[in-house]
Amino acid sequence: MSKLLGKVAIITGASRGIGRAIAIELGKEGASVVINYSKDEEGAKETLEALRELGVVAYAIKRDVSSFEGAEEIINKTLEHFGKVDIVVNNAARSTLGLFMDATREDIEGLISTNLLGAMYLTKLAIPHMLGKGGAVLNISSMWGEVGASCEVLYSTSKGGLNLFTKALAKEMAPSNVRVNAIAPGVIDTKMNSFLSQEEREELENEIPVGRFGLPEEIGKTAVFLCSDDSSYITGQILRVDGGYI
């Protein structure tokens, strides 16, 4: 398979979970992959090894995308290493549980900086390198960005903002052949949900029409579709992948 042969893709938050799955699936389709991470060095090495075992050309960059300078370094190092940027997948995100009235200023600023501003910074810096040849921006949102979740107000707000960023930028960049879409995952079987007890997990599964959690690779395969020419007439869309939950 080579839907992305010759493309260079940056995936933020690619040291584990959905980010790793997206990196692997894009790599399988021929893309060279830039693995971005901020803290999980061991996880980033595991993603790098998994890609190289598949014969994928991959490179890891440790930078915090929530700072403009960090995003700038990600772009600069990608250009130094590969000479171009074709695909940006804004996946890096933080999540917190708790009442909004208990959130601190640091909680609010930290989460919004990573989940929303980080995506905006990296995309702004990548777009000039896509002009004239086309490109794809894919934002990893959440079903909660559409309907909101109690005790996840900050997370829901950041993802709702990401959705509107996706729709507005898509209209702006469509004449330049740069497509901008988002995936809104439902409950995906990653470490982020490892805090659930077996009973809580079963209760949640019963609420999902397909009767199970989603798999990270299912998000990865959706990412391939939205980053490849298979979706060449699709832009400004939020594709919910939630097993029918919402």
UniProtKB/TrEMBL annotation:
Q: Quote the PROSITE patterns the UniProt record gives.
A: ADH_SHORT
Pfam families in UniProt = adh_short_C2
What molecular function does GO assign, one term? oxidoreductase activity
**Matching SUPFAM superfamilies, A to Z?**
NAD(P)-binding Rossmann-fold domains
One GO biological process term: bile acid metabolic process
| Alphabetized UniProt keyword annotations | Lipid metabolism, Oxidoreductase, Steroid metabolism
Q: Which family does it belong to?
A: Belongs to the short-chain dehydrogenases/reductases (SDR) family.
- Official protein name in the record: Short-chain dehydrogenase
Q: Which organism is it from?
A: Clostridium paraputrificum
